[in-house]
Write a structure and sequence with these properties.
This protein is α+β, with helices and mostly antiparallel strands. It is built from eight helices and 14 strands. Helix 1 packs across helix 7.
Length: 293
């Protein structure tokens, strides 16, 4: 049986995109997200968590204890209703359901059965109340190492949808469309795993290994014409001896430095960068560095 995690973890995650849109902004016609003041590209924590959820769903199936709570077309109240039924707690129709020890019972059941609930947490206080869970695993927004220049590419389609379109496009005219891409960008995300919160959500060592596995492999199972070529490049993990941590996360993150190699040309591949991993003597006492990829 898997054990509860006993260590705090902080990690740096590097991934890149080539001729693709890693995270479109629906408020900007789905253009790649950027910081308007610096033009650095942005990928939200929500986007990264979605890809992890999709990977777990693909590799584990929608089966306990690896079910996924936030997935496409999920009706959350039905999932909450199931939690009450599985724990033999009566449901009263027509009124807000859940309170006191009942909520604690169903909240624990949701953590036991849903990977993303015990990993990222969830607000489940709807009409059928399953409480709120604060997840032990959190990400900041990913940011590109250098400023990016999103391109708006014109594309065409030779087929039409209706006979009316066919008649108006006589003579070989084509349907026009747009595709938004970033030629190349290397992104850096920083994340945290709290052993203290993991105790409360039942997040365990198997779940942690699945998280690392997902970060290394999720882009290989998330291909689309819009996203182009996306790749995980490096995962640098700081494992603390103490569950409370042996150093500040910001201190550890500053040890990982990324430099663009000298060139007047804009970066167009991962080889255009140098990744500086901290030496053993630079790492604070009580912290172990684990490098993947």
């Amino acid at each position: 049986m898997s054990e509860a995690i006993k260590n705090r973890y902080d990690f740096v995650y590097l991934f890149d995109v080539e001729n693709g849109n890693p995270n479109g902004d629906p408020d900007a016609d789905n253009m790649p997200r950027i910081d308007p003041e610096t033009n650095h590209g942005i990928v939200t924590d929500v986007c990264l968590k979605r890809k992890i959820r999709n990977y777990v769903l693909l590799t584990k199936g929608d089966i306990s204890p690896y079910r996924i709570y936030i997935k496409e077309r999920a009706i959350l109240n039905k999932l909450h209703e199931e939690a009450y039924q599985k724990n033999n707690i009566p449901l009263e129709k027509g009124k807000r359901i859940g309170g006191g020890k009942d909520v604690e019972t169903v909240r624990n059941w949701m953590c036991e059965n849903y990977y993303d609930v015990r990993t990222f947490g969830a607000v489940m206080s709807t009409d059928i109340n399953c409480g709120t869970v604060k997840g032990p695993v959190q990400f900041g927004f990913a940011k590109s190492i250098d400023p990016v220049t999103p391109l708006d590419i014109t594309i065409t389609r030779c087929a039409v949808a209706t006979e009316e379109e066919s008649e108006t496009q006589a003579g070989g005219a084509q349907t026009m469309g747009r595709k938004h891409i970033i030629p190349y960008a290397l992104y850096r995300a920083e994340g945290f795993v709290s052993a203290c919160l993991a105790e409360k959500t039942l997040f365990n060592t198997d779940d942690l290994e699945l998280l690392w596995e997902a970060l290394l492999n999720m882009f290989d199972h998330d291909r689309s014409a819009a996203r182009g070529k996306m790749s995980a490049r490096k995962l640098i993990i700081f494992e603390h001896e103490s569950k409370f941590g042996n150093a500040h996360a910001s201190e550890l993150f500053e040890l990982v430095k990324i430099h663009k190699k000298p060139s007047e040309d804009p970066p167009r591949s991962f080889e255009d960068y140098t990744i500086e991993i901290p030496r053993l003597e630079e790492i604070p006492i009580g912290v172990k560095l684990i490098e993947k990829l």
